[in-house]
Amino acid sequence: MAVQIQFRRDTAAAWTAANPTLAAGELGLETDTSFYKIGNGSTAWNSLAYGSITGTLADTAVTPGSYTTANITVDSKGRITSASSGVSGIDAFSDQFFLGSQLWS
């Protein structure tokens, strides 16, 4: 005999509007955000803390560290996809500029 377990689920707006009190250990899932809350039997939805169902972040080609006058590229999900140190200063009067710690004329 197969057993089916189903969690309460609805949109974030519907949960907020209804503001139910979940039973102790009961899970409520927001279908449009992938956030969830777990009830304690006495706290209404709007006052419960969120949990999140997320995948792991993929590695990027960005090397961890500090960048000076950084050139940064960010993808549509807000992840840094490239970073490099840029030009740190230009002296317009002497036609000299610094690239990192190197002075160029």
Description:
With 105 residues, this protein is mainly beta. It folds into 2 domains: 8-52, Seminal Fluid Protein  PDC-109 (Domain B) (Ribbon); 70-104, no CATH class. The chain is built from 1 helix and 9 strands. Strands 1-2-3-4 form a 4-stranded mixed beta sheet. The radius of gyration is 25 Å and the shape is elongated. The chain starts with 7 loop residues before the first strand and ends with a strand.
Q: Gap between N and C termini, in Å?
A: 81 Å
Which term fits the overall shape? elongated
Instruction: Tell me roughly what share of residues is in helical segments.
Output: under 10%
Task: Please work out how many helical segments DSSP would assign.
Answer: 1
CATH architectural label of the largest domain: Ribbon
Spatial sequence of strands, sheet with the most strands: 1-2-3-4
The tally of beta strands, per DSSP, is: 9
Radius of gyration: 25 Å
Strand content: 25-35%
Keywords for this entry:
105 residues; 4-stranded mixed beta sheet; 2 domains; Seminal Fluid Protein  PDC-109 (Domain B)
